[in-house]
Amino acid sequence: MSTFLWILYAGVTLWSIISIILHGSRPTKSLSWLLAVILLPFAGSLLYYLFGVNRRKFKFFRLRQTENRKLYDEKYKNLKELDNKVGLDSIKKQKLAQLIQTSTLLAPYEGNKVKVLNGGQETFDSIFEALEKAEKFIHLQYYIFSEGDLTERFYSIFKDKIAQGVEVRLIYDSFGSFSFRGKTIRRFRDIGVRAYPMMPIRFGNLLFTLNYRNHRKIIVIDGDVGFTGGVNVSDKYIEPISDLGIWEDLHVKLEGPVVSSLHRVFVKDYHFAGKEELLLKEKYFPEISAQGTKTVQIVAAGPDSIQPAIMQQYIGMIHSAEKCICIANPYFIPGTAVMQALKIAAQSGIEINLLIPEESDSNTAKYSMFSRFEQLLEVGVTIYLRPDFSHSKMILIDGEVSSIGSGNFDYRSFEHNFETNALLYDEELTAQIQYEFDRICEGCNRLDYETFKNRPTWQRLLEGLAKFFSPLL
Fold first, then answer.
1. Does any domain span residue 11?
2. Domain at 364, CATH number
3. What are phi and psi of 257, to 5 degrees?
4. What radius of gyration, in Å, describes the C-alpha atoms of the chain?
5. Residues 6+ apart with CB under 8 A from 376
6. In a domain, 69, yes or no
7. Is residue 177 within 8 Å of residue 145, measured between CB atoms?
8. Residue 294 annotated as catalytic
């Protein structure tokens, strides 16, 4: 028996090593997987098969749903485009907008009304108010749609609206919304909600989709009102049910032509998840007149994207900055490219401020973040640790451009997750967000380079272990 196990172990390990060498996309990540496979008999190979195989080259991109996404792209070209003549007032904004449009096919639109929503209570108050006014359809997409008071409020509104003839469609991530199943989902479907999971966790495709999650948070109402950002449907955003207290976060309400871009992202994902015909009809994409004066661009990317648009957006913003960069993120685990971009900016005299939660819902993520702080502090980056837990994902440059969305500064958001950000080309909105950023920083612990450099050995060890796993996060 022992001989058989040794032969099996040797065969599985050899297959894993050969696969990593042939298909590894990044040396540091490949090295991490090689060490995991060698140091963790069987378990390392299993983890690599689940989370490490580059499925861009394998079955993930031959799934039926992926063919649906390609079909969407073909039919999308026949949909009438909105008149889009945007006059961005600086080369910086023009280059950034061109980068995003080239990599995502989503253009910037002017004539929008934007409201920045700070915290779960303000976010859901605004969402429920808008849902109550729906007349034609409500389309929702969430990473986490969990049981609780918020979900019951959605259920009540959906029931009333469907009785009035409003169509309701919901897509949710089957991993993030693990509790949204069984009797709970049947209740929603019984009242007429057309609900589908993204990449459902099933035996037949488990190994090919488990590592790819839909992390987006999108609501589109009647085609002209939209919401996106970082807030999930979970009571921890409105009640202190978590060990971290109430989770803070940012969201945006959008009204105007850019909602069409947000809706295109939803419709493509809905076609990916569901079995209904395409929603590329005038009914769902009405003519949208200007509702305000703001210019906004949606950034959307996923594991089936040709370009890693979220990472490109962040690096593009860092390189575009001339004076200052402000970043708030709960999972700040940048790879080599982003780290180098930040270092170059800091050494070029650009002020960089990072706002990071002192505590995290993941100790691995926490210590992996901390492992990067010393080299950033060394080049002059200012790091603030906030005492509460903030789930916000935002980046501001030069007081001119800001981004709020679902994309983290980590490998998962850059490579494995479907993400959506709202890029705001507006000084007034950016100043509003900057004011809140600065206000929070005033009450935070600012890290000192010399003090942090002399932190305890046990903390360095935890950081080193966590950093080892960071390419796998």
1. yes
2. 3.30.870.10
3. -60, -30
4. 22
5. 339, 342, 343, 346, 352, 354, 383
6. yes
7. yes
8. no
Q: Is 398 designated active site?
A: yes
| Together in a domain, 322 and 458 | yes
- Is 391 in the active site? yes
Query: Which range (18-22, 237-241, 288-292) has the least confidence?
Result: 18-22
Q: What are phi and psi of 450, to 5 degrees?
A: -65, -40
Q: Is 159 a catalytic residue?
A: no
Catalytic pick from 235, 398, 410, 426?
Answer: 398
User: What value, to the nearest 5°, has the Cα angle with vertex 190 and ends 66 and 158?
Assistant: 85
173, 222, 224, 269: the active-site residue: 222
Q: Which of 435, 438, 404, 421 is nearest to 115 (CA)?
A: 404
**215 annotated active-site:** yes
Interatomic CA distance for residues 47 and 471, integer angstroms: 13
For residues 315 and 397, membership in a common domain is answered with: yes
What digits encode the pLDDT tens for the residues 375-403? Answer: 999 999 999 999 999 999 999 999 999 99
Token pair of 384 as six digits:
């603030």
343 is catalytic: no
Please report whether residue 106 resides in a domain: no
Tell me how far CA of residue 6 lies from CA of 33, 49, 153, in angstroms: 20, 19, 56
- 363 or 473, which is more confident? 363
> Which domain does 271 fall in, by range?
63-87+113-291
Q: What is the pTM of this model?
A: 0.87
Instruction: Tell me which of 92, 217, 268, 467 is the catalytic residue.
Output: 217
